């Protein structure tokens, strides 16, 4: 996802690495190119400005350690700022609550919400040995509940039996009852999506959230949609309040801008990234590792 950004940045920073002494002019020039590279990667303009200002402020006049070249210092500062921009520490899904712990999945249609629901369920079941129940609250798309049932069969995760004619709230309450009765640790609620953010969708999800008090509300966003993904996340967070973000299609050839600006724009952590269509194609988001990958 970051390939072209990595190439651009290493070009800029390599130039610096070879220099003996670093002047303010060097830093300003390098930051101009870093700025261009980040904008090309589709990072939000405000985020880019803030980022380059911070690096500049730290780099100009920085005391250069004897063991490194001035250029290496700048690379280190860029790395540290990238990590900070990405959210510093990895933030896994938080299950520290009384069972059944609720995870509400929200997002636009086609973002990968249902697939991610199954991936998380698969991981919690097989890696963390949790007893997981999946429930589809999507009563708008006729096949949605059936789609989740099939995914449950494929991944070996329990799904809430389908009862025709129930509304999302009724299904959510039934899921809670079933989970308590069945001794489940976690309930993952998949919700209906829309092609665009609209009031009706937001109201519906907000009502469900108010009724079930999920411990996590995860916004699923498609990284290939770049800044749209960031705007979608902002809208959902504003209307509903999310606890974290899952960025899907990180295996695709997106330009990385969504991953880079998401945290800075929304203030919410990217918790997981989807890296393929298989059940295990889900990874924790580690800001440090991502920054190293970006810097090559
Ligand atoms: P929903 O409408 O948001 O529930 O979207 P779906 O879960 O049905 O996913 C839409 C398509 O995206 C499916 O074909 C998924 O296999 C695919 N998909 C989901 N996540 C990823 C991912 O991380 N990488 C790739 N390559 N495909 C994904």
TrEMBL record:
GO CC, any one term: signal recognition particle
Reaction(s) the record says it catalyses: GTP + H2O = GDP + phosphate + H(+)
Subunit relationships: Part of the signal recognition particle protein translocation system, which is composed of SRP and FtsY. SRP is a ribonucleoprotein composed of Ffh and a 4.5S RNA molecule.
GO MF terms, alphabetically ordered: 7S RNA binding; GTP binding; GTPase activity
Keyword field contains Ribonucleoprotein: yes
UniProt-annotated binding residues for GTP: 107-114, 190-194, 248-251
The family this protein is said to belong to: Belongs to the GTP-binding SRP family. SRP54 subfamily.
Membrane topology note: Peripheral membrane protein
Ranges for domain SRP54-type proteins GTP-binding: 269-282
Lineage: superkingdom: Bacteria
Domain free text: Composed of three domains: the N-terminal N domain, which is responsible for interactions with the ribosome, the central G domain, which binds GTP, and the C-terminal M domain, which binds the RNA and the signal sequence of the RNC.
Keyword list, A-Z: Cytoplasm, GTP-binding, Hydrolase, Nucleotide-binding, Ribonucleoprotein, RNA-binding, Signal recognition particle
Protein's gene: ffh
Chief localization: membrane
EC number: 3.6.5.4
Function per UniProt: Involved in targeting and insertion of nascent membrane proteins into the cytoplasmic membrane. Binds to the hydrophobic signal sequence of the ribosome-nascent chain (RNC) as it emerges from the ribosomes. The SRP-RNC complex is then targeted to the cytoplasmic membrane where it interacts with the SRP receptor FtsY. Interaction with FtsY leads to the transfer of the RNC complex to the Sec translocase for insertion into the membrane, the hydrolysis of GTP by both Ffh and FtsY, and the dissociation of the SRP-FtsY complex into the individual components.
Protein name in the entry: Signal recognition particle protein
One GO BP annotation of this record: SRP-dependent cotranslational protein targeting to membrane
Localization (cell): Cell inner membrane; Cytoplasm
């Amino acid at each position: 996802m970051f390939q072209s950004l990595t190439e651009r940045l290493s070009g800029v920073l390599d130039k610096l690495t070879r220099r003996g002494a670093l002047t303010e002019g060097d830093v300003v020039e390098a930051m101009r190119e870093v700025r261009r590279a980040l904008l090309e990667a589709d990072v939000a303009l405000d985020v880019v400005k803030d980022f380059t200002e911070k690096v500049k402020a730290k780099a100009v006049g920085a005391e250069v350690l004897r063991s490194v070249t001035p250029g290496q210092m700048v690379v280190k500062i860029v790395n540290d700022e990238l990590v900070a921009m990405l959210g510093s520490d990895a933030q896994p899904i938080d299950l520290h609550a009384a069972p059944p712990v609720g995870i509400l999945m929200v997002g636009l249609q086609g973002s990968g919400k249902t697939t991610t629901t199954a991936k998380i369920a698969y991981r919690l079941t097989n890696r963390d040995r949790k007893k997981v129940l999946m429930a589809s609250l999507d009563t708008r798309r006729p096949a949605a509940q059936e789609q989740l049932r099939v995914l449950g069969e494929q991944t070996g995760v329990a799904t809430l039996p389908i009862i025709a004619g129930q509304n999302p709230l009724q299904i959510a309450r039934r899921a809670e009852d079933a989970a308590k009765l069945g001794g489940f640790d976690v309930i993952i609620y998949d919700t209906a999506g829309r092609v665009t953010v609209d009031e009706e969708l937001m109201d519906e999800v907000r009502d469900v959230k108010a009724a079930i008090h999920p411990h996590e509300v995860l916004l699923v966003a498609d990284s290939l949609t770049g800044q749209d993904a960031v705007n979608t996340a902002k809208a959902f967070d504003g209307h509903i309040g999310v606890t974290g973000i899952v960025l899907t299609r990180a295996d695709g050839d997106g330009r990385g801008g969504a991953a880079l600006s998401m945290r800075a724009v929304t203030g919410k952590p990217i918790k997981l990234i989807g890296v393929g269509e298989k059940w295990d194609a889900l990874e924790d988001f580690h800001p440090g590792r991502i920054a190293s990958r970006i810097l090559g």
